[in-house]
């Protein structure tokens, strides 16, 4: 299905080519066009921008929109690289930076990117979306703040079939394209790895499950117990780490106090699945403060990892590696395809790879 702005563009273009709208005539005002086509101002502006870029019309303040040609004077096909908005919550070396690298590589020679950072704030997310729309983007790649509630601006874009790709998240019941990792399968692999190493009391440590990546990792932890016929103790699920969430006011020290209390309440736990690399660091430091050694006393497996580079002192966690550059590349390619062919609802899920490190004790050895 083509985007609404494409349909408005096609209709006005055809009327100009047929002569229904003659050279020198003025188009109705934006409000009238909006009412006639039953679409938003964003859709009308995008369609008019495309007509202007193709040389059919000119737009001037206080004068309006005037037809200046009945043939395209600047052919669109192959003439201009599409402009895409890339909106992310945050990024660092462990997660996000390599997604940007993949997006930049994929867009080289094929698209231009406007990058916005929301820092986990709802107001900034709304303003970022509206800002790139005002800049004339033809598609948007969005890493949403949360997956439980959808920004009304995003819902509006989906309803208008605007080229949109959700990154590192997915909306279960909303028809929109998405590119993410298979977080559930990754958590199953991580938890089963610990089971195979002889651990039977495995806790999961994460941020609140307001995004699908965290919810899926928790689901994978649960399913791994079922697959291995190991009794599940839901009290070993701790999703109260908040200092790693963009926009939070919670300090790392506050999280460590609460995490220490959780660990002390569950001395039977011998291994942890940490849902993020930074959470693994908080867990490591908390265990160290308690006088517990890794992996001799407690084992950790996490998601993502900071590249060591030349830092040979970096702790090397056993971890689940996401194909981050591929995520960025596919997000750009999916968005470009939607710009050319119309909005899509395809959801792409990439597998994760287990990378063995130095933080898991094999109790069976």
- Major beta-sheet overview: 6 strands, parallel
Helix content: 25-40%
* Spatial order of strands in the largest sheet: 4-3-5-6-7-13
End-to-end C-alpha gap: 58 Å
Mean pLDDT: 89
Number of domains: 3
Structure keywords:
transcription, 16% strand, Rossmann fold, 365 residues, Arc Repressor Mutant, subunit A, 6-stranded mixed beta sheet, alpha/beta
Quick recap:
The chain is an alpha/beta fold and 365 residues long.
Describe the SSE topology:
Blueprint lengths: L3 H15 L11 H8 L3 H13 L3 E4 L3 E4 L15 E6 L8 H11 L4 E6 L4 H13 L4 E4 L9 H8 L4 E4 L9 E5 L1 H14 L5 E4 L6 H16 L9 E2 L13 H14 L5 E4 L2 H13 L9 E5 L14 E4 L2 H18 L5 E4 L2 E3 L10
Parallel strand pairs: 3-4, 3-5, 5-6, 6-7, 7-13, 8-9, 8-10, 10-11, 11-12
Antiparallel strand pairs: 1-2, 12-14
What does this structure look like?
The structure is a single chain. The protein is built from eleven helices and 14 strands. It is elongated and about 85 Å long. With 365 residues, the chain is of the alpha/beta class. It has helices spanning 4-18, 30-37, 41-53, 97-107, 122-134, 152-159, 183-196, 212-227, 252-265, 277-289, 324-341; strands spanning 57-60, 64-67, 83-88, 112-117, 139-142, 164-167, 177-181, 202-205, 237-238, 271-274, 299-303, 318-321, 347-350, 353-355. The chain has three domains: 4-67, Arc Repressor Mutant, subunit A, CATH 1.10.10; 83-180 and 324-350, Response regulator (Rossmann fold); 183-322, Rossmann fold (3-Layer(aba) Sandwich), CATH 3.40.50. 39% of the residues lie in helices and 16% in strands. Strands 4-3-5-6-7-13 form a six-stranded parallel β-sheet, with helices on both faces.
């Amino acid at each position: 299905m083509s985007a609404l702005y494409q349909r408005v563009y096609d209709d006005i273009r055809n009327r100009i080519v047929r002569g229904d709208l003659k050279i020198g005539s003025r188009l109705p005002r934006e409000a009238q066009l909006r009412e006639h086509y039953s679409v938003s101002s964003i859709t009308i502006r995008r369609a008019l921008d495309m007509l202007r870029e193709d040389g059919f019309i000119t737009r001037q303040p206080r004068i309006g929109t005037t037809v200046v040609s009945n043939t395209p004077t600047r052919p669109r096909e192959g003439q201009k690289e599409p402009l895409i908005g890339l909106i992310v919550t945050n990024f660092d070396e462990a997660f996000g930076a390599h997604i940007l690298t993949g997006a930049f590589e994929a867009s080289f020679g094929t698209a231009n990117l406007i990058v916005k950072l929301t820092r986990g704030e709802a107001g900034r997310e709304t303003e970022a979306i509206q800002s790139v729309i005002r800049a004339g983007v033809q598609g948007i790649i969005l890493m949403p703040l949360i997956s439980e509630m959808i920004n009304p601006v995003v819902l509006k874009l989906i309803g208008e079939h605007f080229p949109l790709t959700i990154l590192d998240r997915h909306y279960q019941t909303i028809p929109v394209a998405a590119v993410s990792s298979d977080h559930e399968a990754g958590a199953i692999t991580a938890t089963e790895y610990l089971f195979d190493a002889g651990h039977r009391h495995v806790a999961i440590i994460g941020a609140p499950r307001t995004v699908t990546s965290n919810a899926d990792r928790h689901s994978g932890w649960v399913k791994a117990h079922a697959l291995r016929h190991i009794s599940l103790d839901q009290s070993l699920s701790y999703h109260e780490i908040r200092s790693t969430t963009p926009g939070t006011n919670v300090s790392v020290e506050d999280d460590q106090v609460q995490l220490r209390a959780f660990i002390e309440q569950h001395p039977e736990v011998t291994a942890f699945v940490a849902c993020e690399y930074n959470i693994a660091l908080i867990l490591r430091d908390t265990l160290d403060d308690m006088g517990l050694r890794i992996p001799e006393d407690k084992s950790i497996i996490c998601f993502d990892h900071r590249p060591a580079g030349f830092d040979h002192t970096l702790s090397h966690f056993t971890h689940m590696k996401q194909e981050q550059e591929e995520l960025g590349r596919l997000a750009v390619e999916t968005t470009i395809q939607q710009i050319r062919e119309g909005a899509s609802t395809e959801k792409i899920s990439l597998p994760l790879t287990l990378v063995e490190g130095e933080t898991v004790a094999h109790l069976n050895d």
